[in-house]
Amino acid sequence: MRTRALLVAGVVVAAMLVPVTAASAVDDVNTNKLRKSVTVSGILAHERVLQRIANNNGGTRASGTAGYAASADYVKKELKKAGYKVTEQAFEFPFYQEVTPTTLSQVSPSSIPYETESMQYSGSGAVTGTLVATLNVVVPATPEPSSASGCAVADFVPASATVPQVALIQRGTCTFAVKVANAVAAGYDAAVLFNEGNPGRTDLLTGTLGDPAAIPVVGISYADGVALYNATVAGATSVAVSTEIINETRTTTNIIADSPKGDPAKTVVVGAHLDSVLEGAGINDNGSGTSVILETAIQMQNLKIKPRQQVRFAFWGAEESGLLGSTHYVDSLTDEQLSTIYANLNFDMLGSTNYVRFVYDGDGSTDGVAGPPGSAQIESVLNDYFATQGLASAPTAFDGRSDYGPFIAAGIPAGGLFSGAEDLKTAEEATIYGGTAGAPYDACYHQACDDLNNLSTAALNELGDAAAHAVMTLATSKSGFFEDGSRRAARPEISKDSFEYWGSGLVR
Fold first, then answer.
1. Continuous segment of H or E residues that includes residue 96
2. Chain centre to alpha carbon of residue 171
3. What kind and span of H or E run contains 331?
4. For the chain, how are helix, strand and coil distributed in percent, rounded to 5?
5. How are beta strands 238-258 and 125-133 bridged, if at all?
6. Which residues pair with 501 in a beta bridge?
7. CB-CB contact of 245 with 124 (8 Å)
8. SS3 letters for 217-270?
9. What does the alpha-carbon distance between residue 333 and residue 289 come to, in Å, rounded to a whole number?
10. Which are the contacts of 27, defined by CB distance < 8 A and separation ≥ 6?
11. In what helix (H) or strand (E) does residue 327 lie, and over which residues does it extend?
12. Nearest-angstrom CA–CA distance, 53 and 74
C-alpha cells in the first residue's frame, strides 16, 4: 500500500492509497528540471502581455475581436521563436453580443417586471404578446429533474397566425436548443425559459442555445416561472420581451504548435483556450491556462527535452462561444488522424484566488461519469504528483465545461486541472486548501475585474508545476495506458447531448 499526504490546516496527514496497478500504468518520470524552469515569473510575463493586449483593445480578448487576434499573434510569435512548427487554423463561428440589457415584464392583467437575461444565441427583437405555457410543466417540481416541457412540438398549443404569442417553457430533460426549436416550429414569436425547481435548479436561468435562434429567448428563475405559469392558468396573461443582440458570422483561429521531436503517430494534445469573454481581459479565464502551457512549451525547448510522443500545444479560439475551436479541430480530423491522438490534457483556469486543486475525474469515482479508457491513468498522474508534494487534490467532473469535451466525445483519453470558477468554496475545502468558505473560487469569473489582480501566485505555482509534470510525463513515458501497453481503446458511446454544459453555458 502507498500513502498519500494531504495538507490539512498546515498539518500533513497520511491517507491510504490503493496499490499501483495497471490502472496507473504510465511511467514515473523525473520532471524536476522542467518544473523548476516553469516559474511563476515566467507565467506572469505572458499574463502581462495579455493584459496589455486587452487594455489596447477595448478591455477584451474575445474571439472575433482585435484583442483575440493580437493574443493569437503573440502566442504564435513566442512558439515560433522557441522552435515549434506553428499553424493557424481559421474557422467561422457565430459571434454573439448583447447590445443592451434584456427585459421581461408582465403587462396584463397587471404590470410586473421580472429579472431576466437573454440565453446565449437568442434572437433579437421586441415582442409583446399572450403568454402560453407548454404541456408537461411540473409544478411543484419533483425532487429530481423530470419535466419534459417543450421537448416535443406536440407540447405546444399551436400559436396564433395573427397575433404575437410567447411560449413559457420549463427547464428539464432535453436541451434548451431542442425546446426553442420546437417553439419556433409551433409558430411562437418569443420564448421564456424558467428554471426547473429541483435542488440546484432554482436561480435565474442562464445558458446557451448553441446556435443562433430565430426568436428572442430569455431565462428566469423557478419562482418567477411559477408566478407566470400560475397567471396563465388563472386567465389571459400578456408579457413584453425585449432583446437587442448582435448575431453575425465572424472568423477566428486556433493556434497549433507541434514539437520538432516525438512520434507523430502518438500525439499528446495539450490545450488551453485563448479567448476571454467580451466583458473582460480573461487573465485567469483563461490567460492562466494559456500562459502555463505557453511557458511549458518554451521551457521544454530550452531544456532540449526529447519527447517520445509528439507534443501538440493547442490554443483554442471561441471556447467561450461553446467549445467551438476545439470542436472544429476534432471534427476536422480524419479517422486516421484521430487515431494518432494519444491523449488530451486540458488546462482552463489555474490561478483562481480562492482556489482548490481540482483534477478531472477520469475514473468517474465521484459522480459515476468516467472519461474514455486512459483518463483514469491521467487522473492518477496528477493526483500522485500532488501526493508527492504533500498537497491535497479533489476530483472535478467531466461535465462539458471545457475543451476536453470534443476529445472525450471522440473516445480520446483526457485529463487536466482546474482551480475553480463561480461556485462557492465549502467549509471542508477551506479547511484543506485555505481561503474563504462561502465565497466563489473566482469572484471575478466572466467579469471585467478578471485582470492581473485576479490571480493567486500560489495557485499558479502549484498547478503550473503539476501541469508541466503531466505534460512531460505523457510526452516521455515509454508505457501505454492499458495492460498490454497500448495507447488507445475503442471509441466509447459519449455524445455531446450527454453533457450538462458545452463550454461555460448550460445546455440543458
1. strand 85-108
2. 21
3. helix 324-332
4. 30, 25, 45
5. antiparallel
6. 506
7. yes
8. EEEECHHHHHHHHHHHHHCCCEEEEEEEEEEEEEEEEEEEEECCCCEEEEEEEE
9. 24
10. 473, 476, 477, 478, 479
11. helix 324-332
12. 9
Helices (H), 83-209: 176-185
pTM of the predicted protein model: 0.90
Q: Alpha-carbon dihedral of residues 88, 94, 100, 103, nearest 10 degrees?
A: -140
Tell me if 283 sits within 8 A of 51, measured CB to CB.
yes
- Tell me whether residue 453 is exposed, middle or buried, using C-beta atoms within 10 angstroms of its C-beta: 0 to 12, 13 to 18, 19 or more: exposed
319 is catalytic: yes
Collapsing DSSP states into helix, strand and coil, what is residue 377? Answer: helix
Catalytic residue among 78, 117, 196, 319: 319
Ranges assigned E (strand) in 364-433: 394-396, 414-418
Task: State how far the Cα of 294 lies from the Cα of 291, in Å rounded to an integer.
Answer: 5
Residues in the chain: 508
Which amino acid, residue 354?
N
Cell of 234: 388563472
Q: Which burial class, exposed, middle or buried, applies to 486 when counting CB atoms under 10 A from its CB (0-12, 13-18, 19+)? A: exposed
Distance CA 161, CA 332 (A): 42
* Tens-binned pLDDT, residue by residue, of the chain (508 aa): 233 333 333 333 333 333 333 344 677 899 999 999 999 999 999 999 999 999 999 999 999 999 999 999 999 999 999 999 999 999 999 999 999 999 999 999 999 999 999 999 999 999 999 999 999 999 999 999 999 999 999 999 999 999 999 999 999 999 999 999 999 999 999 999 999 999 999 999 999 999 999 999 999 999 999 999 999 999 999 999 999 999 999 999 999 999 999 999 999 999 999 999 999 999 999 999 999 999 999 999 999 999 999 999 999 999 999 999 999 999 999 999 999 999 999 999 999 999 999 999 999 998 778 899 999 999 999 999 999 999 999 999 998 889 999 999 999 999 999 999 999 999 999 999 999 999 999 999 999 999 999 999 999 999 999 999 999 999 999 887 765 555 555 455 566 667 787 777 778 8
- Provide CB contacts within 8 A for 434, sequence distance 6+: none
Cell of 252: 477566428
- Is the CB of residue 130 less than 8 Å from the CB of residue 109? no
Closest CA to 347 of 271, 411, 435, 280: 271
Query: Distance (Å, rounded) from C-alpha 142 to C-alpha 170?
Result: 13
User: Rounded to an integer, what distance in angstroms lies between the CA atom of residue 412 and that of residue 476?
Assistant: 18
